[in-house]
Amino acid sequence: MATLLNFVRRSGWQFQHIDKAKLKEPFQLSAIMFLSYFIGSVIDYFVNLKELISYLYPNTYFLLLDILTVLFICRYVSTSSEQGNICKTYLLVGLLCNSLLFLAIQIEVFLVFEGLKSYQPWWLWYVFAVGVNAFDAMMVLVLILHKDFLKLYYLINKILIR
Q: Which of 38, 79, 141, 146 is the most exposed place for a label (fewest CB within 10 A)?
């Protein structure tokens, strides 16, 4: 959704008064996120189709894909505009938080599988369910709005400049 909107902003006649260079970086980042989530959906489809899912590590590929996406963005995506920097910061924070949540759930599943913890619902499951969706929504919103609506970019810059 964000990739399509950014594509239309970059190429649409109704956005001729907007500087196209400012829109290039958010479009690239949204395309990277689209590819990452598309690859994750394809992997999830084939894993469930062939019933290859492991009870011990059910969603490890999402964790690995988030980490690979963070590494790709850090290594190969350079941003110079403020909109690009804001989008990059929010995507890195969102992907890292999603990775931490996936890792926590993987540790939980491992402990339950090994019998070191009883199988009971607890607060981490609810934090995971709400957290992953909230961070995904945050990443989509920043790719659409190109604004620092949670002031994460401002706080990170303030912390790093000190």
A: 38
**Burial track 89-107 (b if 16+ CB lie within 10 A, e otherwise):** bbbbbbbebbbebbeebbe
Q: Cβ(59)–Cβ(105) under 8 Å?
A: yes
Closest CA to 87 of 75, 78, 100: 78
For the segment 98-133, what is each residue's pLDDT rounded down to a tens digit?
999 999 998 888 888 888 888 888 889 899 999 999
How far, in Å, CA of 41 to CA of 49, rounded? 12
In this structure, are residues 43 and 69 in contact, taking their beta carbons and an 8 Å threshold?
A: no
Please tell me the number of Cα atoms within 13 Å of 155 on its side-chain side.
7
Cβ-based neighbour number of residue 141 at 10 Å: 15
Instruction: Tell whether pTM > 0.85.
Output: yes
Q: CA triplet 106, 70, 111: central angle to 5 degrees?
A: 10
Residue 36 near residue 69, CB atoms below 8 Å: yes
Sole residue written with tokens 């929010």: 90
